[in-house]
Design a protein that fits this description.
The complex is a heterodimer of chains A (148) and B (228).
Chain A lengths: L1 E5 L3 H12 L3 E6 L5 H5 L12 E4 L5 H6 L7 E4 L4 H14 L4 E5 L3 H9 L3 E3 L1 H14 L10
Parallel strand pairs in A: 1-2, 1-4, 2-3, 4-5, 5-6
Chain B lengths: L1 E5 L3 H12 L3 E6 L2 H11 L3 E3 L5 H6 L7 E4 L4 H13 L5 E5 L6 H6 L5 E2 L1 H12 L5 E7 L4 E7 L20 E8 L2 E3 L12 E7 L3 H5 L15
Parallel strand pairs in B: 1-2, 1-4, 2-3, 4-5, 5-6
Antiparallel strand pairs in B: 7-8, 8-11, 9-10, 9-11
Classes of the chains: A alpha/beta (148), B alpha/beta (228).
């Protein structure tokens, strides 16, 4: 499948790398040209030599999204550092480009919950952390090293 | 009327002033502490500090009972979300959004946020109106009705120059609604004669622009050399 990841920070770059390693076509869009460093890090070959593509551009610009291949994406990951940007581009991917699988990262649990109710597949790291930490405090779970 | 304004930049602050003067109840939300403190000196209890894209901040400001929500921050994605949540989550009847980058207007439309107002777009229109370089001015686009009202300058030697309105052969779905001449204007009849340098106002179905405008412009098509 063809995966488009918008926002190549820690989260976006990690997803992009695993998807590429699993043999998918992966395109990454980030407004910062330096962001490719995270994609190259820890790999034997550069991101582009491995077959990944990288586009520099602003997430909200349709031209940038098109250059990164949104019109042929099977899956779309919105993982920029802005909750509102992620929620807007995820809806663009879903409603305008009919991307089949759209996932969006939202740090604020309030917005995450409401947009999830509206039909967006939303991942809220804050909510996940709260639940894990609470469970660990109550002794319902215990783990060594980093959970997850 | 209870009005909630998100963003206390120049636009938000001045809007708040005007709307308070018109005896509305107004609350402004501003996310920069510094800006908040500056504006608070004047607006006092009418401004609240916080991120107006967070639900609890909107709720604290009483968004549920707002008659109108105005999103005028400097970030289009924020303005879109605020208005989308105001309308769909909190049932606010009327929203107005500022669109900072006119290229983002399509996103406002896609997500049902309207009206979205782009200052850049408005100024561009005014420039078109003041400097009708191409002889054509869009006066009004009625998008939902799929109609537009345009203004055309009648070029000397064009098909319309010296012709009666009835003989223009305009396509169905277009109509000359007035002729502006010598500082005045009138509503023409079929036998009114159009002259060079008149300005004509037409209402037409979207998409007819090209076939209509060619009757009012000079016949020789412009070449790229004209723009060099």
């Amino acid at each position: 499948m063809f995966v488009l990841v918008v926002g190549s920070g820690r989260v976006g770059s990690a997803i992009a790398k695993s998807m590429l390693a699993e043999g998918h076509d992966v395109s990454v869009l980030d407004e910062n040209p330096e962001a490719i460093a995270l994609l190259n890090r820890g790999q034997d070959l550069s991101w582009e030599d491995l077959g990944g593509s990288f586009t520099v551009g602003t997430a909200l610009e349709i031209d940038a999204l098109l250059a990164a291949g949104i019109d042929r994406a099977d899956a779309f990951v919105a993982s920029t550092d802005g909750d509102n940007t992620n929620l807007v581009i995820a809806q663009i991917a879903q409603r305008r480009f009919d991307v089949e699988r759209v996932v969006v990262r939202v740090l604020d649990p309030g917005r995450a919950r409401w947009y999830a109710e509206q039909g967006l597949q939303t991942v809220c790291p804050t909510q996940t952390a709260i639940e894990l930490l609470e469970a660990a405090v109550r002794g319902q779970i215990s783990f060594e090293g980093v959970s997850g | 009327m209870y009005i909630l304004i998100v963003g206390a930049g120049k636009v938000g602050w001045n809007l708040a002033r005007e709307l308070v003067e018109k005896t509305n109840e107004v609350i402004v939300i501003e996310s920069s502490r510094r800006r908040y403190e500056v504006v608070e000196e004047e607006l006092e209890h009418s401004i609240q500090y916080g991120d107006g894209t967070e639900l609890w901040v909107l709720e604290r400001a009483g968004i549920e009972r707002a008659d109108l929500v105005i999103a005028v921050t400097g970030d289009d994605e924020d303005n879109i979300l605020i208005c989308q949540m105001a309308r769909e989550k909190y049932g606010v009847d009327r929203v107005v959004a500022r669109c900072n980058n006119p290229r983002n207007l399509q996103h406002f439309e896609l997500l049902g946020v309207k009206p979205a107002i782009s200052a850049t777009d408005l100024i561009l229109r005014l420039i078109e109106h003041e400097v009708p370089k191409y002889g054509l001015v869009h006066l009004l686009d009625l998008k939902e009705e799929r109609l537009e009202i345009i203004e055309m300058e009648v070029a000397e030697g064009s098909a319309a120059d010296g012709a009666k309105v009835a003989d223009l052969g305009l396509p169905d779905g277009s109509l000359v609604i007035s002729i502006l001449r010598d500082g005045g204007g009138f509503v023409p009849k079929g036998d009114s004669v159009i002259r060079a340098d008149d300005e004509v106002l037409l209402v037409l179905d979207i998409g007819l622009e090209d076939s209509v405008t060619e009757r009012f412009s000079r016949r020789a098509p412009a070449t790229s050399a004209d723009f060099r």
